[in-house]
Amino acid sequence: MPVVDTEQQAPSVTPSTPARALLPSILPAVAVGVMSSLLLVGVEVAAEELQGVLWKTVPDALGIGRYSVAWMFVMLVATGVAVGLVVWKVPGHAGPDPATVGLDAPVLPPFVLPGLLLATALMLAGGPSLGPENPIIAVNVGLAVWLGGKAIPRAPGRIWPALAEAATLGALFGTPVGAALVISEVLSRQETRGLLWDNLFAPLTAAVAGALTATLIDRPSFDLDLPSFGRPGWADLLAAVVVAAAGALLGMCVVRALPYVHGVFRRLRHPMLMLPAGGAVLGALAALGGHLTLFKGLDEIAELAHDPDGWSAGEFAVMTVVKLAALLVAASCGFRGGRIFPAVFAGTALGLCAHALVSGVHPSVGVSAGVLGMLLAITRQGWISLFVAAVLIDSPGILVLLCVASLPAWLLVTGRQQMQLRPDGTPVR
Known about the structure:
Blueprint (H helix, E strand, L loop, with lengths): L5 H4 L9 H4 L3 H37 L6 H21 L23 H14 L6 H19 L7 H15 L2 H13 L7 H22 L16 H33 L4 H19 L8 H9 L6 H21 L6 H18 L5 H17 L2 H10 L4 H18 L16
Helix pairs in contact: 3-5, 3-6, 3-7, 3-9, 4-5, 4-11, 5-6, 6-7, 7-8, 7-9, 8-9, 8-16, 10-13, 10-15, 10-17, 11-13, 12-14, 13-14, 14-15, 15-16, 15-17, 16-17
């Protein structure tokens, strides 16, 4: 009778990490989470204060309309000059070309970080269509690696960037869920040991600390308070699929245009030419799209959602196209910033345009599907796109529609070039 080798027959089981190995990571993760959140909130509060001076106090004192065409043009060009001076003169030149950087930030040396923070705060206050996420993640990663390496030199160097990125995303969205989803995507591309949740333990702890800190200080909220959405039907499913696909296609137009627009600005060679020229183009776009197409777009999204029937389909379409063009120009000419929030604004305007064109498209369905498709194209992050699109609408029924709509939209964007360039200007695929 043959002998059965039970060891070879036993199913393969991934060994889990003992609790005693995970416990020492809690304190460093919490420290990175709190530090990252405080830095993000601090930069955003400082930028909001400066924005109030530039866009309210000064034009009121001069007797100029706050969002008149002339003032928008002057402010955006002036912002280009200010950021250009930082990129030109401050040590480290405010980091690498932002068109070559995504959410997965490089580890920058400490002397680069002050200039990057200053350029980001000036951009946020001045009106270009970019958010804070990419540069703040880069600053937090640089600080975490520098300070963590000094405090715990024996810790693996790769843990600090993961903690800082997760903490910043947790603070940015006010919840650790988005950070967990992004880190899960990153881990899927790496060789890791142990169970998924063992590898997520420390980054998720940092994300929780970052989210709690931001919530206690700033209370971020993404719910747009759109009209309530009940049980989804077949018409809602069709609308979600069509709008998400349209958002993905529009987003891919921006992605495909990035190398060409970036190449035009790159020919100017000097930041004191590139950034003011970009500011002038942004000023012209603001004159076309109105003041709602300025800034990162979060407050402006809330204004759109407050009255989803307050604009015509044509006006929503213009805002969608102008915001995408402004995102493209700002990302190409050298402004330091991220692309998630401007893409969310463009997706929101697209969804409300669909609602204005076809009254049967529920505004909640249109907005969430538009944001989903736009983010899939711009970020190429499936989980974060689903998360952001779902968190805008307080309705469990939306998630089912989004999961279905994400499939054809993903087929439109996967395998194609991304909204990120290599240092030589060629697109990343």
